[in-house]
Amino acid sequence: MMMTIKMMMMMIKMFQCASSESRACSLNPLTVRLPFIIALKISQLTFVFDVTDLGDRTKSFEKCLRMLDAHEHVLLSSSSSSVVAPLSIIQFPEMCFTGYTFDSREEIEPFVEWDDEEEEEAVTRQFLSSVAKRFDCLASAGYVRGIRDAGRKLYYNAVQVIDEAGRVILRANKHHLYCIDETWADEDIESGFTSLELVLKARGIGNTNNSRSSSSKVEEYRIKTTVGICMDINPYKFEAPWGAFEFAKTIEKASSSLILFASAWTNAHPDDDAETKAIVPDRTETWNYWFNRLLPLFVDQEKEGEEGILRPRKRAFVFANRVGVEREIHFVGSSVVFQIERGGKLIVKGGLDNKKEGILVARVECNGVKVL
Q1: Residue 4 — pLDDT band, cuts 50, 70, 90?
Q2: Please, are residues 58 and 98 in contact by the beta-carbon 8 Å criterion?
Q3: DSSP state at residue 82
Q4: d(CA 109, CA 107)
Q5: Which span out of 50-64, 249-263, 303-317 was modeled with the highest average pLDDT?
Q6: What domains can be seen in the chain, in order of their start residue?
Q7: How many Cα atoms within 13 Å fall on the side-chain side of residue 67?
């Protein structure tokens, strides 16, 4: 998804981050809030995809497993803090196992995973299922989704979330297509952005009357979640008004307190010259663009939402982005976990490099409801 200099000049303002940033691979668990405040631990993994392996998911899976193996002690640790949580979810970027820069439906067709396939045939689902079971958490990643509908074959740039039992609990299609998607993907113009409740393991750290009391008991919490994929955060086709804020307003309307965002974000257009394509901005530049696309969530936080629903006091954001180069397209990395509190306070909880692969484990607070 392109972030041009012109768009950066359109940014309404820069936010000062109250940063409590952690190093990649250091324990900095994540947290949640609604009627109750809970502690979640979220992991992101981003790796350099070898373009010679475009479509070779097996090599991608093997590389990810080696990275997970190398950091298993951090991912499974539960004793670094008095409010540390069990691992709640592992988030991978957009189309990270197949590569992103396909030129046609014919080229991408061998890598489509159909909704009606068995797990053995749906290899991304199978991989995520093994990760979720191993780490006893949810696992989410981008992939190429196929749906058979009345004799038609529909291809979507999508994300799926798998639970600890290996079940698919969410499939969400990219709503705003980028020009690279348009070479092969169908546009999901009916379903809109996906918002739903996910159940995650966590530890309670207080309730919404500002009291904070740590609990050593691991419990399940329902968390209202909105899912986005890369271009979704931008104005539709870059033609909608900047101030439409379609994705941010969906989050606000749904009163979501957890936002999962998988992307293959780039700073250039495929038609740009090689010099422009090679520019990888500093991660704070990328972060500030994303923050500005969420502007409605920073303002009017003291008011109630639609139909009298109280807005979350804290929202957690998990942005997992690609790094590396693919067919001259440079991805800008800069994966980040942050939270926005009522009143507009922004806290960056951890981030990855703009060029290097890595694993980030981060802690953040948001709202959740205990499963009884």
Answers
A1: very low
A2: no
A3: T
A4: 6
A5: 249-263
A6: 5-350+358-367 (3.60.110.10)
A7: 22
